[in-house]
Amino acid sequence: MSKEKLFVLGSTGSIGSQALDLIEKSEDFEILVLSAQKASEKLLSQVRKFKPLYVITEEKPSKEWMENLPSGTKHVLGLKNHLKELLKKLNPSKVLNA
Question: What distance separates the 2 farthest-apart alpha carbons in the chain?
């Protein structure tokens, strides 16, 4: 069975965090994109754990934050500017707008 490919928008908020807790317990999902307002330690921790292809923030991250991204994860600045393009490119099964 193929994995459900997910975008989790607002991953550091309450709903996003709870969803990721559930997703972590299952092998049925692959996280393609995580997004949050700020380039926080919480988001960086999520990115390290789930290793999405892309992480999107509205706030420009620090150089140190960028240096700590996993090697296969790309940072994109601004959800509104890039969401449509990433949806087309990655074709997720589901988008969770938390």
Answer: 39
The pairing of strands 29-36 and 74-77 is: unpaired
| CA–CA separation, 22 and 80 (whole Å) | 27
- pTM of the full predicted structure? 0.94
Contacts of 49 (CB under 8 A, 6+ apart): 24
Measured distance CA(35)–CA(77) in Å, rounded: 10
Q: What is the DSSP letter of 53?
A: S
CB-side neighbour CA atoms (13 Å) of 7:
22
What tokens appear for 91 in the block? Answer: 């074709």
The sign of the dihedral angle between the CA atoms of 53, 54, 55, 60 is positive
pLDDT, tens digit (0-9, with 9 covering 90-100), for 14-71: 999 999 999 999 999 999 999 999 999 999 999 999 999 999 999 999 999 999 999 9
Instruction: Determine contact, residues 35/62, Cβ cutoff 8 Å.
Output: no
